[in-house]
Amino acid sequence: MWSWGEVAAGCQRLMSWARGVQAAAVAELSRRPSMRPEPSWRGAVSSSVRACVGLEVTGALCVTSSQAESLVAESVELVEDFAATHAALTAGRVDERRARVLLGELRGQDRDVARVVEAAVIDRAPQWDTRQLRRRVKTLLHRLAPVAVAERRREAEQRRHVCVAPAGDGMAWVEALLRAEDAAALKAVLDAGQKTLKRRDAAAGDPHARTTDQRRADVLARLAWTALSTGHIGTTAHGDTPETADTGGGSKPETSTSTDRADSRDDIDRDDSRDSGDGADRDGETNTRVGTDTGTDGDLHDDPEPHTAGTASTSGGDRDGERSRCTADPPERPP
């Protein structure tokens, strides 16, 4: 007798097979003469071919043109460049998430190296979750092509960006592609800050005044307002020199010179006096600072004395469900 878990696993294999067949169909469509008005001299699918096939797929699947072109590009790449992964997907041995991990990590690598790594992990891929699979692929790449891995990292860093776009109703999207260590630092600050705000909400008698996501958003905003009110940002983890910011005030901001980030205390203060002139915090909260020593549990702690020199790192985060209205599409995110 079948268990519900086995039924779910069978459905997953069926979905993998369907995606594999779909990829083969789309790749075959891209090879049709009618879809190749301007064949690439390198034999790859050119943007015009992708657009033509994407237009065909858009009507059939009722998706946007960008979604259709992404599907076309992934399908052709899967069939033509990652045959072993495509075969495993069609056989139901790996799912679409694992296939995308392999494509994402091996894309752009030397083809011989990519094939060796693909062959080394494809049989065991079903036994690993996506994190374990990605870690194993990265390990093999570091062993086989350390120079190429370092070069890809440098190229990826060149694509870092922050995009701010209106979302309507007085809101805006903030989206960023950051170095992994920078994103980890930002996440640590947001998590610590939201814990402090949660305690304050509870102390005020309404522990459910804000959700966790709302508290993180409030902490991120306070980072920006601190930079504007103090007029400077501090050193980064990469040793960049602090830069002063023109805040429109009359005083000249001081530049922090401390390089001991492990013991530093970064002020976080969102100033509402830009509009009212009363110097009051927008939501009545006192100044806070980040505790980075082992005794703080990663939380933000109340600072009885207001600080005048805080550091801020402005960046953005992802959000669920809807794409931002950025004028230019950001680089593709890893699955």
Count of strand segments: 5
Largest sheet: 3 strands, antiparallel
- Number of domains as seen in the coordinates: 2
Shape verdict: globular
Helix content: 40-55%
Low-confidence stretches: 247-325, 327-335
Oligomeric composition of the shown chains: single chain
The sequence of SSEs as H and E is HHHHHHHHEEHHEHEE
Q: Total helix count?
A: 11
**Structural class label:** mainly alpha
Strand order of the largest sheet: 3-4-5
Strand content: 5-15%
Alpha-carbon Rg, integer: 25 Å
> Mean pLDDT across all residues, rounded?
76
Distance between the termini: 35 Å
Fold and architecture overview:
This protein is mainly alpha-helical and 335 residues long. The chain has two domains: 4-158, no CATH class; 179-302, no CATH class. The protein has eleven helices and five strands. It has a three-stranded antiparallel beta sheet with strand order 3-4-5. α7 packs across α8 (146-158). The longest helix is centred in the N-terminal third of the chain and has 28 residues, at 4-31. Residues 247-325 and 327-335 have low confidence and may be disordered. InterPro entries: DUF222. Residues 53-237 form the DUF222 domain. Residues 260-286, 317-335 have a biased composition (Basic and acidic residues). Residues 232-335 are annotated as: Disordered.
